[in-house]
Structures are given as C-alpha cells and as structure tokens.
C-alpha cells in the first residue's frame, strides 16, 4: 500500500495540522510511528504553508539521516540542512566577533578573497555576483571544526555544498563586521532568514570502494598534464560542481545522462552562458574523463559527445573602452591617491592602465612584471612578458617595445630606480597568496574594482580586458601590420606560414610607434 503524502489541514478547533507516517525501517530509531504537529489557528494560509514546508523538510531530513546511519553511510545534506548547519556557524561567529570586530580594512580584504580571480572581474561588475565562491583555507578549517563539533560524517558533495553555504554567509559576516567596526550595531538582516539547525545522529564513514573517485581522476590528470595553476583552480571548482550535482564521487557510476542533466542544470538553473558551460565545465569534464579512459581508470568518457550549441551572447557594444572611458581611467591614474593607498597600489594605478593601453597585454601580464623584465635591447626599451614571472596564457614569452610616450612619462626611469623584484607588489607580504591565487592577480582585481569606482561601470566592457580590445582597434586604425599586432599581444598567428621566424625588436618598435599618443584633453 502506498504511503499517503503529508498535507496541511485544519482541525475541528481551527488549529492547523499535518501528519507524516514514519517509514517502518527507521520507525524505532525515530521514536514514534507518526509525526503530527499543530500550529496556531491565527496563522493565515500563506503563513501556515511556510510552517508546514519547514516542518516537512526537517522531518524528511531526519529520516534521511537515520537511514544513512542504519546503512553506515556518510550523511547527504539537503539544501535546508546544509544552510542550517552553516547558519549555526554564522550565529556563533557573530556572537564571538561583534563586541570587538577589529579594523574595517581587514574585513574588506577578507570579503574580496571570496571572489574568484577572473580577468572579467565579475566581482566588480554592476551585476551582482552570486557564486560559486572561492573557498579559502580558513573556511575549510572552519568547516572541519564545525563537522567535528557535530560529530558528522558527510558526503563529498554535501561538504562542497556546506562550504559554499559557509562562504556565502562569511560574505554576510564581513558586511556585518564592517558595519560593527564603523559603529553601526543595528539589526542583522541575515540571521532571521536562517533555518534552525537540528543535530543528527553520527554517521560512520562509508568503507572505501575499489573504483576511482571523480576527484582522484582530476588529481591524476593534473599530475600528468600539469595545466597552469589558474586552470587547476578553475577546473577543480567545475569538477566539484559535477560531484555535487550527481550526489556521489564514484567516477565509474557517472553516466552520459548524468552529464546531460548537469549541463541542463548549469544552463537553466544556474543561468550560466552556453560559452561558459561549453568552454569551461564541459571542457573540464571531457578532458578529465578522457584522460581517465586513456589510462584505463574508467571504461567510457561520459562527456565525450556532448555539445552545447547555444547562440552567441548578444554584443550590445564594442568590448573595448570608448575614448571617453579611456580618458576617464587615464586621467585618474595621474591622481596621487587619498592617503589610504600604499605606494605599490598607487604605482599600479599610475602605470598598469597605460601599459595595457600601449601594449594590449592582459592585466596580469603587466602586474606580474619584475624589474628584470624591463630592459634595453638594440637601443629599444622593452618589457619581457614571460611565464617565469607568473603566467602567460599560451605559455610563450614575448618581448614588447615600450611606446615612447611611456618612456617620456617616466616609466623606464621609475623602474631603473627600483630594487630587484616585482614592480607592483611586495612578495614579502604574501599573506594569502598561492599558486592558484598569486599576488599579481589580486593587484589586477583591485585595479578592476578601482576602475568600476570611477564610473566606468558598463557590464558589457570588462574593467581590465577592455584595454586589450581597444588596442586591437587602435592598431588597425594606425595601419599596424596584422602579424605585428598578433606578436605584440601574444595571439596565435593567422596562418601556418606566419608561425615561422620572429619579429626583430626594432621592427616591432616601428609598429608600436604607429599608435598615436593618447591625449587626455
């Protein structure tokens, strides 16, 4: 006989009530045959439905937890249970920190660290960023302490969900502590939205299985193929998304249908663009499972034939900066700061936009520059963009002549006066840096935030990458040779024949000087 679904109703006295029959297999552990709550008659239907939904989800969470215990499996947290557990941690943090929150700047830095490092600087777009958040070592440690305190063993997918919930609430915690540090002790708008945490029974860890885990395949792929640290960081987040979606980490059980449903989830529920899903998430899955199949770790690649043929995103404007936007930024570079910026921060604001404007380089190719990367060769001053300094997208070093306008402004004179080492950051202050999150990327992120603060906030132009597009437009207008444009920006040659030979720096300098000087009047 099928179990009747729980539903909301009224008793003869007007109270709201519901009834949930507890499944026989865990009835003894649950402690009752049925759960039958009541709510005040004064609630309207909408309020009663909300109470009913919260109760039913809590009951089903407890049933799932007890079944996991009986089967000796790690617990799979529901969305509500995960949010409630993260909320328990959030409440404790608020109680502990509110009386003495410390300095505003510390919380502002902690807040920035939650955003992924992207050249498009999504954190500083006029559109609100809603995740996924970057999980810092601090948050991982806090999650471990939280799970130990609750004596919980949870699945890998549940752990990733919990970490994202904790990161989301840590963002709210930073905002609240910024208010507290500024003397604002008004109401916390977040705490009332969090469900109450109800402890569950300890669940022993599931015995390890013989088959490979999804994350072990990823680790094997990284060990052999050695992709760039930024790629490792981004792809790990994407592969973890697949693990969280399918609800387990058994690579042998992932099917083509699972990957299709994951793809649909990313497109329809997460609202990611077709390009992001195709070139990011699916590329990661295809590469990792392809490597696993080649190395006899799995029988099939479940992502191999899947395609995303979504239409191209609408282009509502030129992705390069307009003349007005460029002048706004470059005029602002000449300001001396308001006293709150460090010398390195002021230096980055002063020179990085100008260097991007005259070289078309990626912002992180500029912010990673060291003194030794600026030198004279055959009478031409150059910057050397090299993977040795940090990262280059195609892993190929290139020399780019410095435009005479930059020399006249004093860039070369500045660099020659500096000690050896990075130009725009202090490696001794590497408090939070790592291979996947180096300091020079943080410099680029802060530049993006600064550009947005100047009013250059059109979401259709990236706050740093806009220079790269603008350079290409300016180079075409100046009749710079196509091969020279590609060589300067590090783009792949247009034909196989153009791959042969190199550009002499004197010839490249002639091409660079075709760019007209940028006038700020």
In the CATH scheme, what's the topology name of the largest domain? hpI Integrase, Chain A
* CATH class call of the largest domain: Mainly Alpha
User: What integer value in Å does the Rg equal?
Assistant: 28 Å
Major sheet: 3 strands, antiparallel
Description:
- The protein is mainly α.
- It folds into three domains: 9-193, no CATH class; 214-294, Tyrosine recombinase, N-terminal domain (DNA polymerase, domain 1, Orthogonal Bundle), CATH 1.10.150; 323-512, hpI Integrase, Chain A.
- The protein has helices spanning 27-30, 45-71, 79-97, 104-112, 137-149, 156-181, 214-225, 229-246, 256-269, 274-294, 323-332, 343-359, 363-367, 404-409, 411-417, 439-453, 466-477, 482-489, 505-512; strands at residues 9-10, 16-17, 20-21, 34-35, 38-39, 374-377, 380-385, 398-401.
- Helix 3 (79-97) runs parallel beside helix 6 and helix 7 (214-225) crosses helix 10.
- The termini are far apart.
- Mean pLDDT is 84; it is low at 119-127 and 201-208.
Quickly list its features:
521 residues, mainly alpha, DNA polymerase, domain 1, hpI Integrase, Chain A, 3 domains, 3-stranded antiparallel sheet, 19 helices, 8 strands, 48% helix
Describe what is shown at a glance.
This protein has helices at residues 27-30, 45-71, 79-97, 104-112, 137-149, 156-181, 214-225, 229-246, 256-269, 274-294, 323-332, 343-359, 363-367, 404-409, 411-417, 439-453, 466-477, 482-489, 505-512, and strands spanning 9-10, 16-17, 20-21, 34-35, 38-39, 374-377, 380-385, 398-401. By secondary structure, the chain is mainly alpha-helical.
């Amino acid at each position: 006989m099928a179990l009747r679904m729980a539903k909301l109703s009224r008793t003869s006295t007007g109270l709201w009530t519901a009834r949930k029959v507890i499944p026989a297999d865990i009835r003894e552990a649950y402690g009752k045959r049925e759960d039958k709550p009541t709510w005040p008659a004064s609630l309207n239907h909408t309020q009663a439905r909300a109470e009913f939904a919260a109760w039913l989800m809590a009951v089903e969470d407890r049933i799932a937890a007890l079944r996991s215990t009986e089967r000796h499996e790690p617990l799979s947290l529901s969305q509500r249970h995960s949010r409630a557990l993260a909320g328990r941690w959030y409440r404790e943090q608020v109680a502990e920190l509110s009386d003495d929150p410390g300095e505003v700047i510390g919380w502002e830095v902690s807040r920035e660290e939650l955003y992924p490092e992207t050249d498009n600087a999504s954190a500083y777009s006029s559109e609100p960023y809603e995740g996924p958040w970057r999980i810092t070592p601090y948050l991982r440690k806090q999650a471990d302490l939280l799970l130990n305190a609750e004596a919980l063993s949870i699945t890998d997918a549940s752990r990733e969900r919990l970490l994202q919930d904790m990161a989301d609430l840590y963002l709210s915690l930073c905002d609240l502590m910024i208010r507290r540090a500024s003397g604002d002790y008004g109401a916390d708008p977040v705490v009332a939205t969090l469900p109450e945490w109800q402890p569950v029974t300890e669940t022993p860890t599931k015995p390890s299985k013989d088959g490979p885990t999804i994350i072990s395949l990823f680790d094997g792929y990284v060990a052999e193929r050695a992709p760039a640290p930024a790629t490792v960081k981004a792809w790990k987040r994407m592969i973890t998304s697949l693990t969280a979606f399918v609800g387990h980490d058994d690579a042998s059980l992932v099917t083509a249908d699972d990957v299709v449903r994951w793809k649909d989830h990313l497109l329809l529920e997460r609202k990611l663009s077709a390009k992001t899903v195709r070139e990011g998430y699916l590329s990661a899955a295809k590469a990792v499972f392809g490597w696993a199949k080649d190395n006899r770790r799995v029988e099939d690649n479940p992502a191999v034939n899947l395609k995303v043929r979504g239409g191209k995103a609408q282009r509502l404007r030129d992705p390069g900066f307009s003349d007005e936007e460029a002048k706004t930024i470059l005029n602002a570079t000449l300001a001396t700061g308001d006293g709150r910026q460090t010398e390195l921060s002021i230096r980055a604001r002063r020179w990085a936009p100008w260097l991007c404007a005259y070289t078309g380089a990626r912002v992180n190719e500029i912010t990673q520059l060291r003194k030794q990367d600026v030198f004279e060769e055959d009478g031409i001053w150059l910057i050397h963009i090299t993977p040795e300094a940090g990262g280059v997208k195609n892993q190929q070093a290139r020399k780019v002549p410095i435009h005479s306008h930059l020399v006249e402004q004093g860039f070369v004179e500045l660099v020659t006066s500096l000690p050896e080492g990075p130009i725009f950051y202090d490696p001794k202050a590497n408090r939070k840096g790592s291979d996947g999150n180096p300091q020079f990327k943080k410099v680029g992120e802060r530049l993006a935030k600064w550009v947005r603060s100047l009013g250059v906030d059109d979401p259709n132009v990236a706050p740093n990458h806009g220079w790269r597009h603008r350079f290409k437009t300016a180079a075409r207008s100046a009749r710079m040779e196509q091969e020279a444009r590609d060589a300067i920006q590090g783009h792949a040659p247009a034909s196989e024949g153009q791959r042969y030979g190199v550009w002499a720096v004197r010839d490249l300098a002639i091409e660079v000087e075709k760019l007209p000087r940028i006038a700020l009047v």
